[in-house]
Amino acid sequence: MKMYSFVAGILLVGVVTFSNGNLLAEKESSVFVSGQGRDEPVKPLAVPKVADQAMVELGKKLFFDPRLSKSGFISCNSCHNLSMGGSDNLKTSVGHNLRKGAINAPTVLNSNINFAQFWDGRVKNFKELLSVGDYAYGGMVAFIEGKVSNSRRVPFTHALTVAILRSIPLYVEEFNQVFHSGRIDMEQMITALTAFEETLVTPNARFDKWLNGDDAAITKQELAGYKLFKSSGCTACHNGPSLGGNSFQKTGVVEPYKSTNSATGRFAVTKKEADRFKFKVPTLRNVELTYPYFHDGGAATLSKAVEVMGRIQLGKKFTEKENSNIVAFLKSLTGDQPKFELPYLPPSSDTTPPPQPFGK
Amino acid sequence: MKMYSFVAGILLVGVVTFSNGNLLAEKESSVFVSGQGRDEPVKPLAVPKVADQAMVELGKKLFFDPRLSKSGFISCNSCHNLSMGGSDNLKTSVGHNLRKGAINAPTVLNSNINFAQFWDGRVKNFKELLSVGDYAYGGMVAFIEGKVSNSRRVPFTHALTVAILRSIPLYVEEFNQVFHSGRIDMEQMITALTAFEETLVTPNARFDKWLNGDDAAITKQELAGYKLFKSSGCTACHNGPSLGGNSFQKTGVVEPYKSTNSATGRFAVTKKEADRFKFKVPTLRNVELTYPYFHDGGAATLSKAVEVMGRIQLGKKFTEKENSNIVAFLKSLTGDQPKFELPYLPPSSDTTPPPQPFGK
Q1: B 53-92 residues inside an 8 A Cβ radius of A
Q2: ipTM of this complex prediction, to 2 decimal places
Q3: Counting beta carbons within 10 angstroms of the beta carbon of residue B47, is it exposed (0 to 12), middle (13 to 18) or buried (19 or more)?
Q4: Chain A contact set for B292 (CB, 8 A)
Q5: pLDDT at B279
Q6: Cβ(A192)–Cβ(A59) under 8 Å?
Q7: For the whole model, what pTM was predicted?
Q8: Buried b (16+ CB within 10 A) or exposed e, B181-201
């Protein structure tokens, strides 16, 4: 037994022992397959402990609440739809007043594992969005659309967000139960949303079961696909528990990536020419569910994405069979999706500022 | 004991005995309060038996699936949000390509009790929407926006809807498990959606508990509000288990209703002058959650709605205290909201027609 898998075993037992949320309690039963883990560049996902279930429940409501957008129509779940792999399955998202998002909405699933957020990694973690919301609006339009932004493009201010929350009696009560501060502020809102986001982990993918020692968990084709994925060099970037989310890499190493999308990637943050067209490597977890692919949503299918990646990143042309083997492997990465009751949102009061679904 | 309440008791016991769905099983335990029912113009809600839980589960997925809209962004739940009283809490809904809905989206909750659907009652039941989708687009824009319509305004055809469903392997499998026909058609889609919709009943409102004999279920203020509601004549139209949904009535009996909304009500269906500005009386169930009010969403608050109704329908000017008593009563009509797990939507395949979120 490898040391790695031993540690993973301990960790998972720990989760079973200490977790206090229903969500987790349900999942752990099948997370821990065996101690016969494999030493691979891809690692299994572990389910984190939920420290404060009440905060998670509050964050869940906020995640589904369209009143946190100017329109009163768009919630976090609109573009990070938890029924659809935490994505919207659109090339780029639909924003306030039908604004076209600048970049493909990345999945919110397992995003807490990412070393940075957004395709250009402009913030480290979800909490940083609190400040980002005040000034940034370039590549992150999909998020910012009328949500927590003071930007000129979408004048939906933090002050208004807080005013809306404070006007809803049951939110006032619930925030107070969670934060005991007697008031609601943006930091609390983001803290609760972050707590919920951290539960959006998708363990028990068949490939994880294989990683944990269950030989029968994946088919021969999927195994062949994984071996080719590894031997071709895909794991140079798509590795770790998230198969990505831990480095910036240039899109188009061998051959340029052709796109009408104007995103410049990491360059937008660092202004260094070397960072032009470097993007955060996206996770491949649940990739079957998060089509279309790439920062511009330019690849509609997994097969296309594999073809393009092989060609422009590795200089490889996969045969049809090789391509389908890799696609089969990628589909074995679909894990247990978030499982919870649709939240009930507390009603507005007579003093709640009204939504503005139409107009800029 | 009145005969009515005795029958209700039998009915509810029947539901407990025969129901086979988790949703119902959870609810019945508290539905049946006692046999001491009251003989009132308002009747308690009964939870219907679920005949086919598998069909309900399929319908639930369809209800949440934005691929049934042209944009790939709008689902039934977008405008009939089950986290928000089955409504969107907007004056009029947001449609495809930011089209402005012509009329306020009525709640989907308890809508199976309505004697007709839409504000102008142009169809009797949900299944009739199947055919309506082919030609109607006037007052029902909010529903039709890119959904099941062949209308010129939103060229999202039935054929395309069916093509999308047929392209999704797990839907093909699930439709076949439910309908055993080996194919998917529009009628099946509507049948499944209807089955789900029929479960969207909200029993156990405190007022229902009072109707069922529990004196302590409502406050003195709420009781005073109900008595005034009744003595003022509100129950002439807002009666039965739904407190409405069973007649067309002219808006503005004593005094005309002022609105910039161009809806003509029942006239649009019958072309009879006498039907001009007659609308289906909306349900008052969960009315606390379904703001703003009236066909044009012209009243932002319950207090305003009560004021206007009293004035233009009854020629009454309620005092502030009377108004707040009626509002308090109305808030006692909020029942158990639909309670179920967020559905997981089966992923598209390589052949699924892509969504068109932008453009007409």
Answers
A1: 64-67, 71-73, 78, 81-85, 88-90
A2: 0.86
A3: buried
A4: 354
A5: 97
A6: yes
A7: 0.86
A8: eeebbbebbbbbbbbbbbbbb
